[in-house]
Structures are given as structure tokens and as C-alpha cells.
Amino acid sequence: MADAARSQITQGALNAIFNDPDRLQRDFPVPVCQCVQVKTLASTTEGGQERFRLVLSDISNFVQSMLATQANHVVHEGKLKKGCFVRLKSYQANAVKGKKILIILDIEVIESLGEMEKIGEPVALTDKEEEDVKPANTTIAGNGFYGNKPQQQPAPQNRPLPSRGAPSSSASHVYPIEGLSPYAHKWTIKARVSHKSDIRTWHKQNSEGKLFSVNLLDESGEIKATGFNEQCDQFYDLFQEGSVYYISAPCKVNLAKKQFSNLPNDYELMLERDTVIEKCEDTQEVPQVRYNFTTIGALQDIEKDSTIDVIGVLKEVAEVTQIVSKTTQKPFDKRELTLVDDTGYSVRLTIWGKTATAFDASPEAIVAFKGTKVGDFGGRSLSLLSSGSMAVDPDIPEAHKLKGWYDSQGRMDSFASHSNMAGAGAAGGQKDPLKTVHQVKEEQLGMSSENPDYFSMKGTIVYIKQDTFSYPACLSEGCNKKVIDVGDGTWRCEKCDINHPKPEHRYIMSLNVNDHTGQLWLSCFDDVGRLVMGMSADQLMELKENDTVAMERAFEDANCKTFTFKIRAKTDSFQDQQRVRYQVMGAVPINFTVEAHKLADLIKLYNID
Fold it and tell me: Where would I find the Replication factor-A protein 1 N-terminal domain in this sequence (predicted)?
């Protein structure tokens, strides 16, 4: 086995990577090395991603290497271990303070060779003066990386003029964003502006100023760059969203302030007066936007305040409303969107400011969002961060797949929202037992005065109380308290001490639900009300005021719908009498395929030979 492994290793490849690019292309298109060390590096920022440092050997030489975060899965899957053998499918060679460092972008573990003790006695690569070192400094990929072809850095005398495809600084070579750190000095990155913020100002007791930021993307990762004051004036108009630039030091690489960034990078850039920024016309190699989508159905498993990317079909578009910040007392424009996807779930996503007022996408468009914050309002909700971005009908496979699904079947589907389950059972991820109405009453669920009971029930709506189905709520973010009509055209929230020009109506409904064993009265709030009625409470109130026939038809359409309800049962007091209150925490439309399989399984239990 040792001889077989030795014969697989491409001896001399590491030296060629850093010193002989011509030989590298000719003799070592996909280098094979032994991993002789794997070390976990602690993240430099709170919440930062794990980083792994490797030592790779080709028997002749060894080199320090850093695993790009996009390749961390080979460690998490237990494949990359000390002594294993690997194919380097995509990588970037760098020299930092005279040290050779290899950034591994894509790696394959040759599991059939297993793990062994270090083969041979490899030595460190010979240090040379920087001008003598000619690393293969463009990403090289055996199978291509995002479709790239191997490319060599042109010699300085053959470089085109600035903005024609190469940086003018001959002292720098192109780094991957993944390889930037405070210890790298002479560097140039080639990156696309995936997001450009508006200019923001601040006013404090001792200072005031302005700033803007851009998110920069290359094939290895993303990083945020910020320009303050003079650099804001100097560079703001130069950067255009979607364009590609060479950006060269001097430019500070600082620890990332995670509270202001949604990018998975432990560092960020601060533009300086002498930072060199040149537009690049050769843009094909640089990806457009890198998404890491989470499905709407999977949101229940995502922690609150996490930052995710999401794509969905635009089901509803609300009007622009204003809320007043509790801290600054300034008004903010917001617009709520409802997205659905092929998991059968919907979610409300809020966009803000100019993005909200300028939003003009039509319902049923496919919209991709990068950088949304997960909230737990109504179970799960999303909010587009100021550093996030949005693309309508993007030309990506995920969008084409969703469009095909929606046109073929999704348009007629019903969608569930995520329930905001409370209590130990939900927190522990346990499924609530499915009960009939008879079992609920027989087992006296909810009769305990100490703790509530949680259960699921499959039932059909037979009646909805129409006299009071909603209440006027405060528009302030996260409040939702009832507001009072002052009589002068405004609505007052005592909690926020604010008068609003209008309220937001929210459902508070009573449903009579039956199954084959009996009936229960259930109480539900806004998310479930939207699912049952198929419209917002504001829309239903508008029908009540202007078209009562249409309102009655909406209630009729909601009757006879069948759902699986997640219910919280708890005893409370009403007019000095004890009663059990059944509160709906969430509802899911019946999945007839799943139900048919369950029935088939039950029939098999009664099968008589």
C-alpha cells in the first residue's frame, strides 16, 4: 500500500506551483499530496467560521496551507485526516512575509489509499527574494472552478493598460479574497461588487461623518470594504454594482465587525487615500453573486438572528407603510412580501427604505435575497439587511426550478407558515401527538392548572365567527399592541407613546373545527388567520367596509378547509369560570400524498391472510 501511495504522489508539484508555472501546467495538472498535519484555528471574531491549517507534502517538499471555508466540509465529514492523500483541484499560491502559503479552494480526499505515517523526509521550499519568486498566482483548477480555465499571470512588460484586464501595480500579484489577512501587505484582489450601500451619515457628540460600503466577491469568497469621509467622496462614484475591479494595497485589513456585516469572513477592508482601484474589463472569471440558499421549509431549524439567503415565488406584495424607530423617533418605510417555495411553506419578508418604495416586482415573480435576518415573529420571519441585496427573476438554476414547479403545480397549492411553538415539547424538537377531539376531551388535555398541553389535530373548519375577526395594531416594529382611534384621524399606541396615521389590522379569530369524533372552538392569531382566509386582515377589513358580499364569500371559501392544527391547551378563567382555551400555534394544509400512505399502512394492519 505504501508503494501504491508513493506512486500516486506528484513529486515536485509543490515547487512547480510556486516557482515553475510552465512545468506545473505540463506535468502536474492535478497535484496529489499527502496531508501530514491538520490543525484547527480558533476564529478571530465572535461567530466567525472555523479555519483549518494543513501541511501538505509531495515527498520532496512540504508547504503550509490554509483550507478555504468553502472546503471545510471535507474535515466535517471526517474525510480529511492526518496522513491521508489528497488531490488539489483548485488552489491559490501566495507568499506572505517570505512564507509560502497555499490556499486550498477545492480538495478531494483519495479514500482508497487510507492514512499512513509521513512518507519520506520532505523539506521546506527554498526561500527566494520576492522578485525571483514566480508563483502560479491565478487559481488553477483540475476540473475548472466555476467553469474557469487555468490562466497564467502575464509578464509585466506584456500587461495591458489599466482597466484593460490587469492591475497596473507590477509589485502586487492577485490574491484570493480568502487569503487576505492583516499580515498580507503587497496584494491585489480582483473582485466583483455584489452590493453597494447608500452613503450613510452619523452625528455624535464628539464627531460626525459619512461612510459607504461595498461587498466584494471573487471565486474564493467575499469581503466587505468601507470608505469613510474623504474616501467616501473619493471612491463612491467609482464603484458600480455588478462591475469588476482590481483593488490594491495600501488598504487596511481589519477584524470584521460582525454586527454590521452579513458576510462569512473574519476580516474586512478599510479603504485608504492611496488605495489603488482600477476597473477590470475581463470579468468572465469572476462569479456574479454567490448564494447559499435556505429553503423556506427549513427556517424552523435556523436560529433567530442568523443571516441567510432565500429564494421564493412572490405570492403577495403589501403596500408601503411607515414605522417609527423607538430609539431615533424617525420614520422608516417598509414593505412586507410573502414568499413561498416548493417545500409547501410561506414566510413574510420585510424590505426597507428605498428598496421598499422602489419595489416593482409583480406577484409570481421569482425573487432571490442575499443577506436576510431570521426573526421569530409569528414563528419565523425574514428582514432584508441594509448590506443585503435582491434579484428579481435571476438567471440561476434554483430560479428556473422554482418557476417550473410553480407553473406546473405550485400556483394551486396551499402553504403553511411556521408556527411559533412554545413549551418544552416544541423546544426539544419533539412531535406533538396527533389526537382526535374525543381523545382531547377524554384525556382532559389542558385541564392542568400548572402546565399547558400541546397536541396536533386534523380537523375541518365548519364555522368562523365574523363579528370580530381582527384588531387594529400598532405599526411600530415588534409592537403589535392594540391602538385606539383618537378621533382626529390618528391611532394611538400607549405602549410606544406614538400616534399613527392608520393601524395595521391583525387577525384574532375563533374557528369551529370538527373531526369524525366531535368539535372544538379554536382561537388563532394573524399567521394562521392569513393561511385560513388567504388574505391579510387589512384586505378583509377593506371588504367589510366596501363590499360585504365579497367579505361573506371570503368566509364561505374558508369553510370546509382541512388542516393539521398544532394546538396549545391551557385552563384560564372567564367571568369567574374555569375553561380550557385551545390556542392554534400553527396550521399545515393536508398533504394528501402523505395521508394516503398513512391510510395504506393502516389497511395493511388489518390485512387477513
Answer: 9-111
Residues 6+ apart with CB under 8 A from 308: 292, 293, 294, 299, 302, 372, 374, 382
The CB density around residue 145, as the number of other CB atoms within 10 Å, is 20
Place of cell 418604495: 357
Share of the chain above pLDDT 90, in %: 40
pLDDT of the residue at 132? 45
Q: Which amino acid is present at 532?
A: V
Give the residue ranges of DSSP H helices in 443-547: 526-533, 537-546
| Alpha carbon distance 533, 602 (integer Å) | 33
Q: Can you tell me the distance from the alpha carbon of 587 to that of 532, in angstroms, rounded to the nearest whole number?
A: 9
**Overall size of the chain counted in residues:** 609
- Residue 337 pLDDT: 95
DSSP tag of 178: G
* Long-range Cβ contacts of 74-79 (<8 Å, 24+ apart): 74/107, 74/108, 74/109, 75/38, 79/109, 79/111
Torsion of CA 263, 46, 384, 477, to 10 degrees: -170
- Rounded CA gap, 601 and 576, in Å? 47
Closest CA to 375 of 319, 336, 343, 318: 336
What digits encode the pLDDT tens for the residues 377-433?
767 899 998 878 889 999 889 999 999 999 998 888 888 877 543 333 333 334 568
User: Pick from 188, 276, 286: which is nearest to 244 by CA?
Assistant: 286
- For residues 326 and 407, the answer to whether their CB atoms sit within 8 Å is no
DSSP conformational letter for 179: G
CB atoms within 10 A of CB 58: 25
301-324 pLDDT, tens per residue? 788 888 899 999 999 999 998 887
How far apart (Å, rounded) are the C-alpha atoms in residues 249 and 274?
8
Domains belonging to the chain, first-starting first, are 1-124 (2.40.50.140), 174-279 (2.40.50.140), 296-417 (2.40.50.140), 434-469+508-596 (2.40.50.140)
pLDDT interval class at 328 (50, 70, 90): low
- Cα separation of 269 and 254, whole Å? 6
pTM summary value: 0.46
In sequence order, what DSSP letters do the residues of 566-603 get, joined into one string? Answer: EEEEEEEEETTEEEEEEEEEEEEE--HHHHHHHHHHHH
Per-residue pLDDT of 16-66, as tens digits, reads 988 888 888 889 989 999 999 998 875 544 455 678 889 999 999 999 898
Instruction: Return the closest-CA partner of residue 247 out of 322, 344, 162, 152.
Output: 162
